[in-house]
Design a protein that fits this description.
Radius of gyration: 21 Å
Largest sheet: 7 strands, mixed
Structural class: mainly beta
Distance between the termini: 15 Å
Number of helices: 2
Strand content: 35-45%
Number of strands: 13
């Protein structure tokens, strides 16, 4: 929530731009004017990962990410449809693997980033697993279509979650907004963001 300062404490805009422009280094002016400049290089995108499958009524589709948003909508049929788009500048998007694990409670899908510690690799497990990620800019965007009788659990760290589904939803992010419409909402948590 933004709180405006009292009018007596506000600063008045000034048009003294020539002074500020004189402080700018010539090389920075050139870089700032370059289209699509990124110190880490151009954005690279891996081939989309696609998965379609049936999940038994009352069971759960759990999706676990680190960097990137999730968008879930109601499916028109009886199958779950998932598309994951991986992109990055510094790091190779292909280095992030999408794992799908079927289990008694449903299906768990994870974006598994490479681990910095070879002795302790990251892993995808229902309800958790090991995910230690440092300095990796790969973004994974999940697009999901979920049948009305399948529950959805979406978990990410850096990204918002949008869900408009008919089943039960449990959603969690650290840095991002949550927008949800669901048959039943069991959880919606964020640290830095809003919930609607």
């Amino acid at each position: 929530r933004l709180i405006a300062a009292p009018s007596s404490a506000r600063t008045k805009p000034t048009s003294r731009l020539p002074e500020a422009a004189a402080l700018e280094a010539p090389s920075m002016r050139k870089v700032a004017g370059t289209a699509n400049f990124s110190p880490a290089g151009p954005k690279r995108t891996a081939a989309p990962f696609k998965w379609t499958g049936r999940i038994e009524a009352g069971k759960t589709l759990e999706v676990r990410g680190i960097n990137g948003p999730m968008r879930a909508t109601a499916a028109t049929g009886s199958e779950v449809e998932l598309v994951a788009i991986r992109s990055g500048r510094r790091n190779d998007p292909e280095s992030v693997k999408i794992e799908v694990i079927a289990h008694a409670g449903g299906v768990t899908v994870c974006a598994v980033y490479p681990s910095k510690d070879d002795a302790r690799p990251n892993e995808c497990k229902p309800g958790g697993g090991r995910m230690n990620v440092r300095n990796n800019d790969v973004n994974v965007e999940f697009e999901l279509r979920i049948p009305k009788d399948v529950n959805f659990e979406g978990r990410t760290v850096n990204g918002g979650i949008q869900a408009d589904i008919e089943g039960r939803a449990a959603l969690s992010t650290v840095n991002g907004r949550i927008e949800v419409t669901a048959g039943t909402l069991t959880e919606a948590t964020t640290v830095n963001g809003s919930i609607r």
